[in-house]
Description:
Helix content: 25-40%
Organism: Caldimonas mangrovi
Distance between the termini: 28 Å
CATH superfamily: Glutaredoxin
Family: Belongs to the peroxiredoxin family. Prx5 subfamily.
CATH class: Alpha Beta
EC number: 1.11.1.27
Keywords: Antioxidant, Oxidoreductase, Peroxidase, Redox-active center
Enzyme class: oxidoreductase
Amino acid sequence: MLKVGDKLPAGTLYEFIEVEGNGCSLGPNAFDIEKATAGKTIAIFALPGAYTPTCSAQHVPGYVQKADELKAAGIDEIWCVSVNDAFVMGAWGRDQKTAGKVRMMADGSGDLARATGLTLDLSAKGMGVRSQRYSMLVVDGVVKTLNVEAPGKFEVSGADTMLAQARQLKA
């Protein structure tokens, strides 16, 4: 399992782009994780699925509400990662009003979830293998903090925890 001090695994995440520009076309665009994290401080939070109750009611809204404070604490970007396709993540981002605040990154095949060892088998609920709920602070591709939730919990991966950790790292 991924731990503090590890480099993020190599791989690709996808983001649905609404407006063409900066080398990105409309629709799903691929982003190399290593290149996208190079030289940046990124708050990443992952969750089991788009549109699921806790994710939609608490996890994403918390990061949207705290986005300005997180950026003031030294965070360059905030990523929400889920084992969903880029179309679903884009639609969910529109619903959650994440534009300009949280990048909705798709791990459609669960490659990143598997590579980090942070998977959650929800096959019994018809959802297959997903990502555990967690958050991490990544600096230049290296994990500085990692907050993994117990199954069914939402206690340590929210925006308030990430904000406190970002402020501590900046101090």
